[in-house]
Amino acid sequence: MSYELFLILHIVGIVLLFMGLGGLAFHGIAGGTRETNPARGLVAGTHGIGTLLIVIAGFGMLGVKYGGAMPGWVHPKLLVWICLAAAPALVARKPGAGRVLWFVAPLLALVAAYFGLNHK
Does the pTM of the predicted model rise above 0.70? Predict the structure, then answer.
């Protein structure tokens, strides 16, 4: 597969992940719980598929560009994606964390974008 196709899949994954996080954050901000979320399956599925696409396409891009080697700038990106992948568990346990997630998630995305775009 080409680098460009992996890049498109990576971006689609990012969009899906943030759609899921936005839905969870809004539900938590509104005082909803895991039990009262009628769209819980849809939101969780969207988030999960997005996370899967991000990881598969990200490693696919590394394979095409670096032959499978993992440069140092990848580690901070992986840490950011792990935090964003685990965020639904936090919001499920503490729905009030949705407000924090609403502001922290874009900052984490900024960090990941910085490392992805400014590497040598």
Answer: yes
